[in-house]
Amino acid sequence: MLNEKVILITDALHFLGKTGSRVMIAEGATVYAHDNAFTDATAREKFAAEIPGVKPLAAQDPTAIVDQVIAAEGRIDVMINNDAFPALKAAIDEVDLGDLRNTLEALVVRGFHFAKEVAKHMKKAGQGKILFISSAAPKNGIPNYSMYVAARGGANALAQTLAKELGRYNIQVNALAPNFIESPDYFPKELLENEAAFKKITSQIPLGRLGTQEEAGDYLLFLVSDKSNYITGQVLYFAGGWAV
């Protein structure tokens, strides 16, 4: 399905990183993976053992990472900004601006930087895909999570704008915007085992349950494949009916 496409994914230990890497490799992709933890050789080795075929990278700077993949493969077909960062809770009058800056850096600035670096190579190649794995949260808003929602909204808007800018180069840019997906980053085990808390969470979801990693992986696989070549500039909600 992916016909030996070269794919770069960020924050590979988080959010949809493991599932995404696994399903893409299974479909014939060459997957390079970034994560902050990969500065440690042991972390890279552990990830490579868990996801056979993946190529974890020690570099952290987006420019250096993109240059390394281009040097090895000659191209990057798909850039997946799988950005993850804690959804920090704070009333607006109690927000720490340092926390806001850190949230924006992780969920907007870094993805922007990666898009900037891959775009010049994709423009020369006359093809490519940039996917922001963001959130459905900006669709409805979540009280007391203004930092997180604002940052995710920025990433969604960036995808829409870049789609219009890069479409003439045959580059598709979209945002996969999940919410209520099984992930220890946002739904840790202790929360899911709290019956009252879990009931409160799922009561907001029309389908009455969390989405699975496998379901999210299937959606991601479609969006990075040639089957989505006529889809661009979309914020594609994946939230069990919550984002309407």
UniProtKB/TrEMBL annotation:
Organism in which the protein naturally occurs: Sneathiella litorea
GO molecular function, a single term: quinone binding
Family assignment from sequence similarity: Belongs to the short-chain dehydrogenases/reductases (SDR) family.
Any single GO BP term: fatty acid biosynthetic process
Keywords: Oxidoreductase
A family per Pfam: adh_short_C2
Name under which the protein is recorded: SDR family oxidoreductase
Domain of life assignment: Bacteria
